[in-house]
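Sequence in, structure out.
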Amino acid sequence: MRVGAVDFWKFVFSVVILCFHSLYFAGTEKYIFYDGANMVEYFFLVTGFLMAASVMKQRPDEQEAPVWKSTWRFLFHKIKGMCPEYYVAWALSFFIKQTAGGLLPLYKICKHLIQCVWELLFLRMAGFNDYNANGATWYISAMLYAMLFLLPLFYKNREFFLHIIAPLLALSLLGYLYMSEKLMRGNTDWTGFCMKGLLRAAGVLCVGCVCYIACQRLKELRLTRFAGALLAFVETGGYLFALYWTFGHAASTMQFVILLLFAVSITISFSHQGMLAQLYDNRVVYWLGQFSFPLFLSHHAWSGKMNRMFPNESYAQLFPKYVALSVATAFAVYGISAGVRWVYARLREPVMRLLVKME
């Protein structure tokens, strides 16, 4: 499902997250996008929406498959779609963390490599949170782990999940975070039975499922031009307000209001009913949406190394270097991943014949 507006804002919010993580070298100086962590909710919402769309569009023969089989098939398909970018970005991030600002001792590098096994297996948010080469991987781990809980319920009874379980879980989990923490940040904080980021992921994924219901209803309507203009205003206004608020305000309960605005805007974006919808549908925007994933994965390692690499420079001096290094790394991830796919497509069958007996 390719929607230009969704791709465009994916790229924009990836840039915001990159800027937000400059907090790691800002020290006491003011950094850009104080509450950029809000933007993660956008990605969880989009993922929840697409999860609902995929499950609800299953063919009748696929619906006959056992729940466990459908669940793992979905998760493996999701993981496959993130590869090889996930592992290429991990390898580059690991190299950066061990070498930037001075090569670490060999014994430390080996220790870090062993401790990263949980990150490579997407298990960080299951509680196996040790040394991490790429801090951004918490999001992917939380997403997959939350889906592992939600998908069996979804496949068991699709309509009941969409209309009852998803709204109930969204309200319960997010309400718990609101009352107990007042924030959705603190992803690796231990709540006593799971990490906070897992509750955040599951709750917002469920909101994304509710957005899917609303979007289907909106698509059924035949709207006037005035209605299309009004939807475009609400859609764009929600995104722009989120940018405005996160630029100059610290983390607060407004995170939950931003989540609500995102839910409304995403519903309109996916409905393609807004007056501006077709303006987003072009190759450039589609590419930006595709590039947003390498960009999201490629900046975190640099953010923690800037002060070590340039110890005497101010935030204003470090920030452009940080952006340049992050973008260059993202292009490296993008290019290397394309090369890996090219090699894989040509070597897959010969390697399979070498290892597996073909009848």
